[in-house]
Amino acid sequence: MAVAVYAPASIGNLGVGFDILGAALKPIDGSLLGDVVEVDDSASGEFELTASGRFSHKLPDDPKQNILFDCYLGVKKHLAELGIQVGPVRMHLHKNLPIGSGLGSSASSIVAAVAALNQFFGSPLNDDQQLRLMGELEGQISGSIHYDNVAPCFVGGIQLMTEQDDLLCSTLPSPESWYWCSAYPGITVSTAQARAILPEHYSKADIINHGRLLANFVHALYAGNDKLAASVMIDVIAEPYRKVLLPGFEAAREELLKLGAYAVGISGSGPTLFAVCDDLNVAKQCDAYLAKHYLQNDEGFSHVCRIDEQGVANVALVELN
After folding, report:
1. Does residue 273 have a known ligand-binding role?
2. Is residue 100 marked as binding?
3. Strands (DSSP E) found in the chain
4. Residue 160 annotated in ligand binding
5. CA proximity to 102, closest of 279, 275, 315, 266
6. Per-residue pLDDT tens over the stretch 204-245
7. Is 25:11 a contact under the CB 8 Å cutoff?
8. Which UniProt keywords apply (predicted)?
């Protein structure tokens, strides 16, 4: 028996919603912008993990230092609490997302792994149980539990983190006309570094402004007012401080807005940049500009995307070869 699960890349924060908004991405060219995890029963007596993919060389050599091992232990522990004992498995990670990219790389691996393991063992964990475990595992990497990457990666769409006892996240309407340009320059910004650069305290004016922008964004999505939603995608919490970690960000934003982008922001902790456009031709022009001027090395890439409304998905093993 073998299971293979794909989990898409995601944008955390969406500029206006620090730690409480996230969106899953789906390139319009059909490419898999996300990680894939395979699970099968061919392990020879103990847990086994192998990896492949464009960014697999960035992973630790010791399989037990990989987050997938923690995913296996986490699922095993939860199933043991349900009276289900599981044996060792073999896992394979197709690492398609760069680490420290601001595209939810760790979230993608975690979501794909937990979902694949749960399916492999007969789907005993419901969606809420899986998502809470995914958040805990993400917290092991970032230092605190937050769901702005794992939730959209798992559920799909644009997610608002409600974090209530009975509802961890809520799906917001996605503007059908929007295209999302996403460009990873090829350098790394660690989440810890990006968080350390933020101030300990914010002014009352910043807090009020942040609340106003976020409330208007959510209202605009439900009202179908796409222009208002885009106009308030302004980050007053993180971007003023984190932009110094992104070479060329300010110049790129200025040019993308000139080309017709509605909004430009930092994807998660960066260094990936995203731009929102309501016209495919504009999006392609922005993508071409980013590919030429924002990417810094051969590891960088740029995509025109839509919102991935599905989230995790099973993939045929033949599609991966």
Report:
1. no
2. yes
3. 2-8, 10-12, 21-27, 34-40, 48-52, 90-94, 158-164, 167-172, 179-184, 263-266, 273-277, 301-307, 313-314
4. no
5. 266
6. 999 999 999 999 999 999 999 999 999 999 999 999 999 999
7. yes
8. Amino-acid biosynthesis, ATP-binding, Cytoplasm, Kinase, Nucleotide-binding, Threonine biosynthesis, Transferase
Place of tokens 């007053």: 236
Answer yes or no: is 84 a known binding residue: no
Query: CATH says 2-173+309-320 is which class?
Result: alpha beta
Q: What is the pLDDT of residues 15-73, one digit of tens each?
A: 999 999 999 999 999 999 999 999 998 888 889 999 999 999 889 889 889 999 999 99
- In our burial notation (b when 16+ CB lie closer than 10 A, e otherwise), range 90-102 reads bbbbbbbbbebbb
Please check if 104 is assigned to a binding site. yes
∠266-269-273 over CA atoms, to 5°?
Answer: 25
Band of pLDDT at residue 319, cut at 50, 70 and 90: low
Burial of 165-178, coded b for 16+ CB within 10 Å and e otherwise, reads eeebbeebebbeeb
Q: Is 102 annotated as a binding residue?
A: yes
Report the C-alpha gap between 89 and 68 in whole angstroms. Answer: 11
Query: What value does the mean pLDDT take over residues 239-254?
Result: 96
192 assigned to a ligand binding site: no
Is 168 marked within a binding site?
A: no
- The predicted-structure confidence for 2-14, as pLDDT tens digits, reads as follows 999 999 999 999 9
Would you kindly state where each structural domain of the chain is located, as residue ranges?
2-173+309-320, 179-306
What is the CATH code of the structural domain delimited by 179-306? 3.30.70.890
Per the listing, tokens 């917001």 go with 172
Q: What are the tokens at 246?
A: 């992104």
Tell me if the pTM is above 0.90.
yes
Mark residue 53 as left, alpha or beta (left: phi above 0; alpha: psi -120 to 50; beta: remaining).
left
3-class DSSP string for 267-320: CCCCCCEEEEECCHHHHHHHHHHHHHHCCCCCCCEEEEEEECCCCCEECCHHHH
